[in-house]
Amino acid sequence: MTPRYAPGDAVRVRGKDKYGHVRTPDYIKGKSGTVAALFGEYRNPEELAYGGDGFPKRPLYKVSFSQAELWNDYEGSASDALYIDIYEHWLQDEGEDA
Amino acid sequence: MSGGHHHPHENLPSGSEDSYYAHRIRAMEELLIEKDVFTSEEVRRQISYTESRSPENGARMVARAWVDPKYKSLLLSDTKAAALEIGVDASGPVEFITVENTPEVHNIIVCTLCSCYPRAILGRPPDWYKSADYRSRTVREPRAVMREFGYEPPEGVSVAVHDSSADMRYMVLPLRPSGTSGMSEAELATLVTRDSLVGVSVPLSPARAG
Questions:
Q1: CB neighbours of A62 closer than 8 A, spacing ≥ 6?
Q2: Amino acid B3: pLDDT
Q3: Partner-chain contact A75 B141, CB within 8 Å
Q4: B155 touches chain A (CB under 8 A)
Q5: What pLDDT shows up at residue A21?
Q6: How many domains does chain B have?
Q7: A42/B139 Cβ within 8 A
Q8: Which residue does chain A place closest to B99, by CA atoms?
Q9: Cβ of A81 under 8 Å from any chain B Cβ?
Q10: Which of A60, B17, B126, B168 gives A39 a disulfide partner, CB atoms 3.0 to 4.6 angstroms apart?
């Protein structure tokens, strides 16, 4: 798979509900962030968890978020950040309809 | 059960602890061995592998990075290779990433989904790292969590939380404490605590290590 995003791209984590094993925690679903790095391609854990082979591999990104935007009443500096690793099928373009 | 039945779990490598979860683990282990998913020898080998890893490995890597700029860039660009240089084979399917504290940014590691941790280098995570409390609060209020570990970042320092949700395992390269210019690499390693490798705190200062 050709990676769809590059560092600096504005993205939104998909808000979908998916039954079973996923690696996208609830607190980050639907949130807007910025691609910080592309790690490469990795087997899909949502397939591996059920005995599948995990192919096709999925691009995996490090995505950064502003803590002040993630949480109400966040205690800390405006430049505090949260980084989380997200597979591409959980990302969409910022501004794209869910 | 016939009279000649021996309790096979008494010989299982996972031990004889008498708690609910220990019983459950041994029951599963026994079944998986019976079904040839793995052998008890493989379990024994995995346990001894994990127990041969400890935070001291991370401490040695950090201390070397403090005194050797070339090693530091290797640690930051290829943590597995840097581990191998101090004799720790961390090869395996997961990747390792070392994030560097700077005078501007303090890093802290968490795994909100479970307890992902750089086990092949640092061994088993501490119990608090796996607690629901640490996992849920570190993303939301990292500064309050650090205060409970006795650390407060200096004024003007940003906090970066890393939630290891996928194939990467994270470790922190803390800042070298002040007042350590005369210390050897081995002495420096004694200042690097497990907590400072996770980022809930910073290394000891030389006076406190005493």
A1: A35, A36, A37, A39, A83, A84, A85, B168
A2: 46
A3: yes
A4: no
A5: 87
A6: 2
A7: no
A8: A83
A9: yes
A10: A60
Classified by CATH at the fold level, domain A10-93 comes out as SH3 type barrels. (2.30.30)
Rounded Cα distance, A37 and B95, in Å: 14
Q: Is B116 noted as a catalytic residue in this protein?
A: yes
Q: Is A84 on the interface with B (CB under 8 A)?
A: yes
For residues B42 and B138, membership in a common domain is answered with no
Is B178 found in the same domain as B103?
yes
The three-state (H, E, C) secondary structure of A23-69, written as one string: CCCHHHCCCEEEEEEEEEEECCHHHHCCCCCCCCCEEEEEEEEEHHH
Closest partner residue to A42 among B112, B144, B167, by Cβ? B167
Q: How far is CA A52 from the centre of its chain?
A: 22
CATH number for the domain that contains residue B186: 3.90.330.10
Residue B100 lies in a domain: yes
Hey, which residues 21-50 in chain A have their CB within 8 Å of chain B?
23-25, 27-28, 39, 42, 45
Residue B19 is a catalytic residue: no
Q: Is residue B148 part of a domain?
A: yes
Helix, strand or coil for residue A98?
Answer: coil
Any A CB within 8 A of B147 CB = no
Asked if residue B96 belongs to a domain, the reply is yes
Domain residues for the domain of B39 are: 12-51
ipTM score: 0.96
Regions of chain A short of the pLDDT cut 70? 98
- Express each pLDDT in B114-152 by its tens digit: 999 999 999 999 999 999 999 999 999 999 999 999 999
B175, B147: one domain? yes
Q: Is residue B172 part of a domain?
A: yes
Q: Which two tokens stand for residue A77?
A: 């500096």
